[in-house]
Amino acid sequence: MTYPTAPLPQCQQRRVAHHASRPDHTELRAQLHAAFAASGLDEVLPACRHRLFPPVTTLETFISQVLDADASCQQAVNRVMLNRQRDQQRLGSVRTGAYCRARQRLPGTMVGNLARYLGKHLADEVPSAWSWQGRPIKLIDGTTVSMPDTPENQQRFPQQTSQKPGLGFPTARLVAILDLSSGAILNAAMGPVKGKGTGEHALLREMLDTFESGDLVIADRYYPSYALIAELKARGVDVVMRQHVGRQTDFQTGKRLGDKDHIATWQKPKNRHEWMSREAFDALPDTMPVRELAVGNMVIVTTLCSSRQAPRQQIQALYKERWQIELSFRDIKTTLGMEVLRCKTPAMVEKEVWMYLLAYNLIRRVMAHSSEWADRLPQQVSFKHTLQIFRQIATRSPLTDEERQSVMGQITAIRVGQRPDRLEPRAIKRRPRPHRLLKMHRHQAREEIQLYGHPKKLK
């Protein structure tokens, strides 16, 4: 689905202003209505009779739920009932059934399209000074998320093969494309962690239309395959990636640009991958010039073949920016809490993931606007600090211009420290609690406890 990048028509501008200024709306609802009106997605909202949880209210409640430290459905319903009591509206039941059914009715494609629209719109409106030589930078990486152990989730997202049946949890793989300047998620694809066509490359191929001519893509050493680089280059996209562990680099060959810096000629693979059609394989070029250069203890491959326009130091600095997507995954999974999902069916799991990405893009939008107002970069603003402030203002009435400037000043008051080349051990100091690991089915463990009692505590 494509989204408008040109200025909005006057009718849409009036709709955005109308929804953003409604006195009976909260700040979060005003932002959602404005996003719906700008994207045109409000026209695809499902029609419904008068309900306690109409679509926009359900969306607002769902986002508030994933933003809350207590992300339970009961807490979300309690908040809605308290707000209705404060506004002297008719109260409903505090049971979660109506809200859960409303979440199921919410179209998952609409949530995903709204998250993509916010990400693209935010990436398009950032200042050009935040880009590299006027070119947008997009980061690629993958991660995994866990979910409740239900038969439906196990069938769609099977657990790791290293875990015994009944002792693991369903796990999904997520590949995301992130805009470096704004930090927004532009697109994402989700699939199982095992099986044919479930790797990160397969998920990325579903999102290749996200890249536009002039983009610069940065990724780790899992991605620099011949087919992917050739496909991106045909789209007018350059890459900066770490050399794949299976490819050997010989700096004695090719066109020398400097010390351990040359342009090598990559040969087209002799064998076609199973996932690639014969037509696509035949369309690949027979050879492809790729620049290879040693940076520290690694080799970087890039299609930026001019050492004058892209010196070694700039290539090294560009690849260091790849770490920003790791930090963004930490913000989404640890700070927001997406690492362990709550929904019990695959459809709701995918909807929950897109809801987290939508909430993340909303926070990033606040960070980008605050950074531009304070003449800073978004990487210098704390995501967690912004989330804490956004939680406080989300349920209040829409902010005035004076209140908005005060909030932006609070958000940018704390500056994130920049520590390049930081080196830390991948280990934790705090010891876990001495609980035994469950190595059998739960019902078998209960039977053993009934027969022999609880085992002795670990020392």
TrEMBL record:
The record's listing under Pfam families reads: DDE_Tnp_1 (PF01609)
Residue runs in coiled coils: none
- Stored InterPro entries: RNaseH-like_sf, Transpos_IS4, Transposase_11
Where do the segments described as Disordered lie?
A: 1-23
Name the chain's protein. Answer: IS4 family transposase
The Transposase IS4-like domain covers 133-362
